[in-house]
Write a structure and sequence with these properties.
Elements (H helix, E strand, L loop, with lengths): L1 H22 L34 H11 L7 H12 L4 H9 L1 H13 L9 H14 L7 H12 L1 H8 L6 H15 L35 H4 L4 H18 L16 H10 L7 H5 L11 H13 L6 H11 L1 E2 L4 E2 L3 H11 L4 H20 L3 H10 E7 L12 E8 L2 E10 L12 H4 L10 H15 L3 H9 L1 H7 L2 H4 L56 H36 L1
Parallel strand pairs: 3-5
Antiparallel strand pairs: 1-2, 4-5
Length: 585
């Protein structure tokens, strides 16, 4: 009897173990979550590019251009501020000088509305870089009148200044004449309007990717509205720039501004500077109205046709191969510019998907093609030789005593710039989503694009390129290989270089699985919901426990068989026991 019971228990326990091993569903849980985008969000207001103001001054030309393509000097409220200020200047000589340079005030105000960037107020170099970023990287859906003004400048004016006034800052009146002559010849094709009586209705703050309407000249108090009190920073910047030009006209290019997080006390101090009791914030906010109007379809189509035509590099691979071969250093057996391997290493270190890596590759392709397009044929070659290195690093600190995300280093002499190299920290990719870019929402940066830092630094390169004389351009091209040897990546940057120190494995990136737009039709209808059951119908391939229909059926079948076997064994056992009892009798 004992043997029979033990045999029955063994059979039953074996069944349970088999069930646990082969039928219990397995769940993979990854407990090692890592956020690869953890960065220091302190704003990089101590950024130091080590560039000479005498050779990177083109932000001034852009501000003058914006002024000439606006009606800011016809704005009644701005005129009243200027008139009141001049009336309170006691020194008649200073008053005459201020009146003569009054356009600087107007240009400063309207330029900072068009390029809505607190960081762009730092100096003319940062203003130009922020404008370049806004022009190149702004999403089509939020291109507004401000973008259209910048688009016209870069497509029509930049090269004229490059051809006729490049090199060291000396005679700004010459630059003004280039812009004035273009207007006289072609007229004013686009105007940023500061005298609208109502807000434009083609875009709203959500479409512009701001939190609310309190941005640009409607942003007054950093404590309440977010941002820095952009309107009051603009007014202080503009008054300071105006007075600086009066005192230091020949070196206006050296003007700089330290932004403030405005509160009521700072506002009162600024009102005192303007000799008024209080600013009319309602009138100041009206200066924003044209920001809500879309750029013309013609301007957007012109820009997009440049991207589509790919006049210089057809695709990223060809562009990368070109620069890799051009910048190859025989003695060191590596290239200073190897975009393919560099960006693969960036993507691998940040755990980017295949699609995101492809996105930044296209971003680089568009950036280079656009930058070459705005030059004439002779200058294109010179720009290609002007850039000697593009480095990405995962290091957090790339400049001593600085929180910079990137920087441009230029080699120059008294007469002009020779070349430029760029170093990026992957910390600069601080957001995955354009709509959640807080630096943009706070008016710190002018562009919401997640890769805008690349365009910003290219803006510094293009500013520096205007500081390169024709003589220096020829020297740079003729001595390119020797210059590369001396300025190789290892000598330019001592930290970790992505693509050299950190290399992506061959398998990276794995392509995203393709989603079949026409999946095969499953003829089996869904199971009907029992009456009174409010739960949704189950997936035909899944049971309530998450098991497949096959597994469920198997479990029921084996359970039934197992139960039957167990009953059979018990029944046989009873029969045998009864038979033994009869024999004893």
């Amino acid at each position: 009897m004992k043997k029979i019971i033990l045999l029955s228990a063994f059979i039953f326990s074996s069944f349970l173990i088999w069930f646990q091993i082969f039928l219990k569903p397995n769940y993979f849980v990854n407990n090692n979550f890592e956020n690869p985008h953890l960065i220091n969000n302190k704003l990089n207001d101590n950024k130091n590019y080590n560039l000479s103001n005498d050779l990177l001054w083109n932000g001034m030309s852009l501000q003058y251009f914006i002024y000439k393509h606006s009606d800011i000097n016809q704005n009644k409220y701005m005129n009243s501020l200027v008139e009141n200020y001049l009336n309170n200047i006691k020194n008649s000589n200073n008053k005459v000088k201020l009146e003569k340079r009054i356009s600087t005030f107007y240009a400063s105000v309207v330029s900072n509305i068009v390029v809505t960037s607190i960081y762009g107020m730092t100096n003319y170099k940062e203003f130009f870089a922020e404008a370049y970023s806004k022009w190149q990287a702004t999403n089509d859906s939020i291109k507004n009148k401000a973008w259209e003004v910048l688009n016209y400048y870069f497509l029509n004016i930049y090269n004229k200044i490059n051809v006729n006034a490049s090199g060291k800052f000396s005679n700004f009146d010459k630059v003004k004449n280039i812009i004035d002559d273009e207007i006289e010849t072609n007229g004013i094709n686009v105007v940023f309007n500061t005298n609208l009586t109502k807000k434009g209705d083609e875009l709203d703050y959500e479409e512009l990717l701001y939190r609310n309407d309190k941005f640009a000249m409607n942003n007054f108090n950093s404590n309440n509205d977010g941002g820095y009190g952009f309107a009051y920073n603009t007014l202080e910047y503009s008054l300071n720039a105006w007075n600086y030009e009066v005192d230091y006209y020949s070196t206006q290019n050296n003007f700089s501004y330290n932004n403030k997080q405005y509160n009521n006390n700072l506002k009162a101090a600024l009102e005192k500077k303007y000799f008024i009791n209080s600013f009319n914030e309602n009138e100041l906010s009206k200066l924003n109205f044209d920001l809500y109007n879309k750029a013309s379809m013609e301007s957007k189509e012109m820009f997009n046709s440049i991207i589509k035509d790919k006049m210089y590099f057809e695709d990223f691979v060809k562009m990368s191969d070109f620069f890799k071969e051009l910048s190859f250093i025989n003695k060191l057996n590596y290239s200073n510019i190897d975009l393919e391997e560099t960006l693969r290493a960036v993507g691998y270190s940040l755990k980017w998907s295949y699609n995101k890596l492809e996105s930044i590759k296209k971003h680089f392709l568009d950036l280079i093609n656009l930058s070459l397009y705005i030059l004439n044929n002779d200058q294109i070659n010179y720009l290609i030789y002007f850039i000697i290195s593009i480095i990405f690093t995962k290091d957090s600190i790339i400049l001593e005593n600085s929180n910079a995300y990137a920087y441009v280093k230029t080699n120059m002499d008294y007469f002009g710039v020779y070349n430029a190299s760029i170093v990026f920290s992957t910390r600069g990719f601080y957001t995955d989503d354009e709509a959640s870019n807080n630096f943009y929402k706070d008016n710190w940066f002018s562009c919401s694009n997640i890769f805008q830092i690349i365009n910003h630094e290219m803006g510094h390169v293009m500013d520096g390129f205007l500081g390169q004389t024709l003589e220096n351009s020829i020297k740079q091209k003729n001595n390119y290989n020797k210059i590369l040897e001396k300025n190789n990546n290892r000598s330019l940057y001592k930290g970790n270089i992505l693509g050299m120190d950190t290399i992506a494995p061959e398998w990276y990136p794995e392509p995203e699985p393709e989603v079949d737009p026409y999946p095969p039709f499953n003829p089996r209808p869904p199971k009907p919901t029992p009456p009174g059951n409010n739960n949704p119908p189950l997936n035909p391939n899944q049971s309530s426990g998450g098991l497949s229909e096959y597994a469920t059926t198997t479990i029921i079948l084996i359970s039934t068989i197992g139960t039957g076997v167990l009953v059979f064994i018990i029944s046989i056992s009873i029969v045998i026991v009864k038979a033994k009892k009869r024999k004893k009798r």
